[in-house]
Structures are given as C-alpha cells and as structure tokens.
C-alpha cells in the first residue's frame, strides 16, 4: 500500500502546481465557517481530470467557461477532453441542457476557429445521442404489409429522407425506416401503425385515369373544414392549421399532407397545352408520378382541336402511323426479329400498338422536343432496314399500277397514298389524278364475281 500512497501524493502535488490557473476566475466571497454552502459538483470519478487541474489559458485567448455538467458530457475545451462520441450522460433532460449550453458556447467562440468546429462536431454527436435515447434501436421485420402498402426495411444510412407521415427527418444512422415498393411512401417504423391512406399503386392499377377538370374546387365547407386526407381541422386563416389547395384534385389539405410539391397537371396540358408546374398534395404527387408513363390519354376524343394548334403533335402522329405500317414487315422478317428492332420502342410499347393513346410523359417530351428527335431516329433506322438492308423486306414493296414507273414504293413513304380497302400503294399524284380509283380493287372485284358466277343450265336435257 505504500507505493500507492506515494503515487497519490505525487498526483496531489502536480495538481497543486496547476492550482494557480484558477486565478483567472473571480474569487468567491468568504463563507462564514458556521454556515458552509454546499457546492454542486459532479463526482471526481466522472471528470476527465481532477477539478484542481484546470489548464491556464494562453494570453489573448477568449475565456470559455464550461459548466461541470457539460464537461461531464465531453464538451470541455481543454487538452484532456475525452474522444468525440464518448458521452457519460444518459438522461434525456441532461442531454437537452447540454445541447443548449453547447449552442451558446458555439455562438460565443470566434467564427471559423478550430474550437468552434470542435464544438459543432460535439453538438452533432449530442443530438444523435439524444435521438438514440428517444428511439431505441429494436429488431424490426424486413417486410411489413399494411393497407395494401408493401413496406421494406431500408438499409441506407442517409439522413436526407423525410417521413411522409410525421413530416420529420429520418435519421438513418439510428432510426429504422421503411419504404413502400408500390408508391415509395417513406416513414419511420414507429409511424407505420398511424398510416390511414391505402397505397396509391392500387388506385393506379384499378382506376388508371386522370382528373381532366382543371382544379375542380368544391370549397372547404364540402370538406367540413378538415383535411381531405387525414381529416385534421384546417382553415384559410391558418388556425388551427393552414389549408393548402391541391391544383390536381381541387381539395384542401393540411401542411402534413401538402408539402407544396410541384407537378405538371394533365388537365391543363390536354386543354391548354400548359406545362407550368403547380402545387399538389403528397398523395396527388405520388399518383401523378406513378401515372406519368401510362398511355391513358386519347387526345382525339379529349381535345381534337389540339392537333390544329400544336405542330409537334402532328409530326409525332405521322411518325407513329408510319411505324405501325412498318410493323408487319418486322413481324415476318427473321433478321428483324433476330435484331429485335421493335425493342427500340420498349419504353413506349403503345407506339407499336396504336397511334391514338398518349401518356403525360409523351406530351412532356413532345413539348421539350426530345420525343420528336428520338422518334425520327427510330423511324430512319426502321426504314433503312426495310428499303436498303433486307432483301426480303424489299421484295414486299409495291409498284404504282397507275403509271408503272419509278422505284419500289412502301406505304410509309411520304409521297405515296395507300388504298384503304386493299392496302395497295400508289404515287400520291397518280392516285388523286385517277379520282382515287384503285385498279387492284377493281381487279379483285371482277375475280370474285367470276368465282361465284354459276354455270348456265343445259337446255337440251
């Protein structure tokens, strides 16, 4: 035991040598010996060094005083501070108090100084520790099915996501969170049981149509002054919650269900050719995102006059009609099937099925000019295979039966006309000069009459 006592005396002597550092602090008033005042200090075992061993500040440095409870959390500005992330506090209230004091200390320190940067790092770790105490890490299942949502546990540690239910940041480092694979709804694991809205994917699968009335507003009274989604009380005055209108549905929502997201409204596009993004609710945003590539707009029925005012749509329609005329050549051509030429349009499968249906993405790309360029390149590739590269496809061409001059004609050529009855191809000028009379149709009609004509009975019998 003697060596231990000797070491203890030596450490006390070293602490005594550093004792003059306390001269920087104001001296406490003398206390009468009859009424000693208790000093609220943490036990010495919780301090990173003895309380007497405070380092002396260098001259010219600002004095940074940190209470003992902050020092207990590893926030003391000294050379003997604990490593970042090592905190002894476990009480939520104590952590909140330490966070507040650390914020005040950051404001007092010189800007862009090393001490201020260290204090900011400690503040971040304190906040993470506080969040960890609020939401303890528990074992959660990897898959959760709720209201047709199919939630998968996320493994990403990103902190840039926001919970769609409580509208707060998802701390991926310390919180468990899920994402719906159908509508990409994100939320904390603790918010799963609070979800009341079914998955939008089911609506897209069963309904698959747009609201084509421009902002069909009915008024707050029709909603009983409640949010259209979560039924929380709302009003235009912002008491108790601000009412935000969705430009797609025309209904009003609270700030938790309407984040002022911007989206292109399909009704404004097909009626006004207006692509300006408008504010929509979170539910409408997810629905429009899932529907953007679905070909559900029949423009000839919704707004047939649109083709008279938008030249780009006329060009797109002509290219689509030509591609439909090329399709039979590819289906009967082995080389085209082996080269999978029709897969050039796999992102827009409806282009090889009809020329009437459009998606919102088609209209967006038409407005920006991307669709016209890409479709023209595909059209050129298809025509090159039929007219130049493939001998089998070349043999399926037509010769104008009215003039019997010129090259081999194809129905997708710009200077040709196609008979609506027999699909024969002629020069456009020849066809209209002949009053649109098709010699092939006349020949087929005579052949049918000769086949069905009955022979005359024998009169000598």
UniProtKB/TrEMBL annotation:
Residues 15-26 have a biased composition (Low complexity). The keyword Lyase does not apply. Pfam families: C1_1 (PF00130), RH_dom (PF13901). InterPro entries: C1-like_sf, DEF8, DEF8_C1, PKC_DAG/PE, RH_dom. GO terms for molecular function: zinc ion binding. Residues 27-41, 48-61 have a biased composition (Pro residues). It comes from the Eukaryota. Residues 148-199 form the Phorbol-ester/DAG-type domain. The keyword Zinc-finger applies. Residues 1-65 are annotated as: Disordered. Residues 1-10 have a biased composition (Basic residues). Keywords: Metal-binding, Repeat, Zinc, Zinc-finger. Belongs to the DEF8 family. Interacts (via C-terminus) with PLEKHM1; this interaction is weak but increased in a RAB7A-dependent manner. Positively regulates lysosome peripheral distribution and ruffled border formation in osteoclasts. Involved in bone resorption. This is Differentially expressed in FDCP 8 homolog. The lineage of its organism: Eukaryota, Metazoa, Chordata, Craniata, Vertebrata. The gene is DEF8.
């Amino acid at each position: 035991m003697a060596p231990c006592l000797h070491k203890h005396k030596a450490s006390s002597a070293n602490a005594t040598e550093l004792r003059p550092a306390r001269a920087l602090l104001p001296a406490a008033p003398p206390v009468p010996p009859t009424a000693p005042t208790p000093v609220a200090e943490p036990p010495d075992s919780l301090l990173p060094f003895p309380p007497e061993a405070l380092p002396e500040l260098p001259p010219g440095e600002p004095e940074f005083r940190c209470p003992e409870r902050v020092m207990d959390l590893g926030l003391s500005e000294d050379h003997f501070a604990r490593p970042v992330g090592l905190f002894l506090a476990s009480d939520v209230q104590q952590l909140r108090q330490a966070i507040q004091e650390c914020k005040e200390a950051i404001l007092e320190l010189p800007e862009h100084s090393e001490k201020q940067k260290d204090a900011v790092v400690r503040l971040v770790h304190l906040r993470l520790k506080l969040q960890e105490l609020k939401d303890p890490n528990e074992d959660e299942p990897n898959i959760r099915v709720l209201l047709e949502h199919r939630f998968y546990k996320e493994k990403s540690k990103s902190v840039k996501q926001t919970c769609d239910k409580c509208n707060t940041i998802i701390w991926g480092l310390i919180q468990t969170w899920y994402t719906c694979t159908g509508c990409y709804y994100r939320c904390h694991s603790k918010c799963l049981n609070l979800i009341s809205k079914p998955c939008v994917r089911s609506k897209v699968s069963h309904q698959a149509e747009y609201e084509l009335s421009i902002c069909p507003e009915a008024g707050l009274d029709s909603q009983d002054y409640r949010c259209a989604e979560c039924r929380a009380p709302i009003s235009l005055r912002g008491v108790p919650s601000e009412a935000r209108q969705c430009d797609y549905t025309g209904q009003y929502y609270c700030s938790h269900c309407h984040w002022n997201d911007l989206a292109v409204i399909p009704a404004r596009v097909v009626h006004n050719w207006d692509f300006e993004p408008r504010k929509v609710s979170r539910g409408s945003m997810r629905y429009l995102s899932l529907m953007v590539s679905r070909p559900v707009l029949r423009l000839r029925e919704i707004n047939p006059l649109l083709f008279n005012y938008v030249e780009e749509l006329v060009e797109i329609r002509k290219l689509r009609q030509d591609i439909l005329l090329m399709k039979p050549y590819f289906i009967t051509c082995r080389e085209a099937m082996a080269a999978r030429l029709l897969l050039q349009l796999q992102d827009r499968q409806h282009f090889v099925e009809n020329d009437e249906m459009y998606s919102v993405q088609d209209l967006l790309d038409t407005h920006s000019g991307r669709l016209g360029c890409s479709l023209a390149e595909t059209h050129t590739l298809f025509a090159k295979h039929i007219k130049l590269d493939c001998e089998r496809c070349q043999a399926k061409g037509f010769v104008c039966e009215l003039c019997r001059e010129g090259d081999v004609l194809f129905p997708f050529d710009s200077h040709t006309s196609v008979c609506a009855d027999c699909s024969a191809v002629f020069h456009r000028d020849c066809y209209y000069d002949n009053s649109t009379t098709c010699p092939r149709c006349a020949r087929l009609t005579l052949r049918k009459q000769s086949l069905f004509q009955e022979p005359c009975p024998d009169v000598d019998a």
